[in-house]
Amino acid sequence: MKIKDTVHFKWYKNLITIIVLLLLFQFSRVITNADFKQVFTNSDQIVVFLSRLMHPDFAYFPKLISPLIKTLQMSLLGTFIGVLVAVPVSFLATPVVTGNKYISVVFRFILGIIRTIPTLLLAALLVAIFGIGEATGVMTIAIFTFGMVSQLMFQAIETIDFEPIEAQLAVGATRTQMAVWAIAPQVFSQFASYSFYAFEVNVRASTVLGYVGAGGIGVILNSSLALMKYERVSIIILTILVTVAIVDKISEKVRRTLA
Hints:
Layout: H1 3-32, H2 37-41, H3 43-53, H4 65-92, H5 95-98, H6 101-116, H7 119-130, H8 134-157, H9 163-170, H10 175-206, H11 217-226, H12 230-258
Helix pairs in contact: 3-12, 4-8, 4-10, 6-8, 7-8, 8-10, 9-10, 10-12, 11-12
């Protein structure tokens, strides 16, 4: 095939791709009844919102310190509880430790159910059961961490060196002794890394839990938006961004050290 014919072929191919994408867009718009004209008819409000959002109310920052500390405390305590429960469950979720695939299937099924529940939905359910407050936020984070970290941990267990396990079993060690002395030393650094990663994720997630009443700085963000105090919204968002960036950097350095 000549170079000229190749260029023409690619041009036609790209044109067909664009046409197909436009047709899919139009089809999606029709079946969802989406009217994009409504977005532009409210342009005046968009200008007002952005103009006020670009002027953060820095005088309001001192009032954010306490809710921000509560958010970090929620994340830390929730992560600790979630990891604490995840460690033994992750061992039970793999036949490498239990020696019984049916037990492991049961635990993996439970973990699968937990991971399928979105964080905000889980928080909303717990708020409906236990009420509004930081304790509900901690429980939400703990359950979310448990589901996520357990999955990562039992996958790490299944990639270890099996020779120490065989040596432990050959000398008559129990399953518990084998887990403690043959498996735990091989996966400890990975477990610690996953724990810090979970804390990093939870700090970001905990900032929005306040939308459903789970406490923390998200409560103030939600109320500021409801009252249309966009200058306060701006400083809250900036505070959250800086906090998350600092936590991410610290967590990344710790995880690199443990790797």
